[in-house]
Write a structure and sequence with these properties.
The protein contains 4 helices and 8 strands; from the N terminus they run βαβαββαβββαβ. By secondary structure, it is an alpha/beta fold. Strands 3-2-4-5-6 form a 5-stranded parallel sheet, sandwiched between helices. Strand 2, helix 2 and strand 3 form a beta-alpha-beta unit. Helix 1 (23-40) crosses helix 2. The longest helix has 18 residues, at 23-40.
């Protein structure tokens, strides 16, 4: 007696991954932000770039290097650790506190541009503003991000945006940089493909 063939189960769905920015695209975006900073700040006078770890710090250094290449202007660069100012410390494992490194001239009376890789809820930027308040009194504060993915929970917007990527809350954006991850790339994870 012949038995009917067993029903085939559908193939497992894999999370989709889409490359939004490849290495050359990341470089072009950094160049564009550097040009925008030069235009909006009248040549980056009295401007300081502060990177928010982890990937904001190398982005700030890249921006300073590109500004110097375009206009021969040396923009001071520093790092602003926000670990103790985060509002999710109770929900996540203990984090190591990193160093805040201000440029030799400090930030008082300067235009500070905070630099980060991805702008999402705005909570990281809020923490950075609190941390900034404890280390000096800038004349003004602006924000530069490589990617703005939307979904703000706080009234925060970036002054300089490399790429707007509309996302759903089920998706995530992952930025990798050569300085921290050995490659420059922006990927969008989420959804499923069969």
């Amino acid at each position: 007696m012949a038995y009917p063939p067993a029903a085939q189960s559908p193939p497992a769905r894999q999370p989709s991954v889409k490359v939004i920015l490849a290495s050359a695209d990341v470089q072009r975006v950094v160049d564009r932000i550097a040009h925008q900073i030069l235009e909006k700040t009248q040549g980056a006078q009295q401007t300081v770039l502060l990177g928010i770890p982890t990937r904001g710090a190398p982005l700030a250094r890249r921006l300073a290097a590109r500004i110097s290449a375009f206009e021969d202007v040396a923009v001071p660069v520093g790092v602003l650790d926000i670990t103790l100012y985060r509002d999710d410390l109770r929900r996540h494992a203990t984090r190591a506190v990193g160093p805040t490194q201000l440029p030799p001239g400090g930030i008082d009376g300067k235009r500070v541009i905070l630099v980060d890789d991805v702008l999402f809820s705005g909570r990281t930027v809020r923490a950075a503003l609190d941390a900034l308040n404890d280390v000096g009194r800038p004349a003004s504060v602006q924000l530069a991000v490589l990617v703005d993915r939307g979904h703000r929970e706080l009234p925060i917007r970036a002054d300089y945006v490399g790429k707007n990527i509309p996302t759903s809350l089920a998706e995530s954006v992952k930025v990798t940089l050569a300085e921290t991850d050995d490659a420059d790339e922006v990927k969008l994870y989420g959804g499923t493909t069969s």
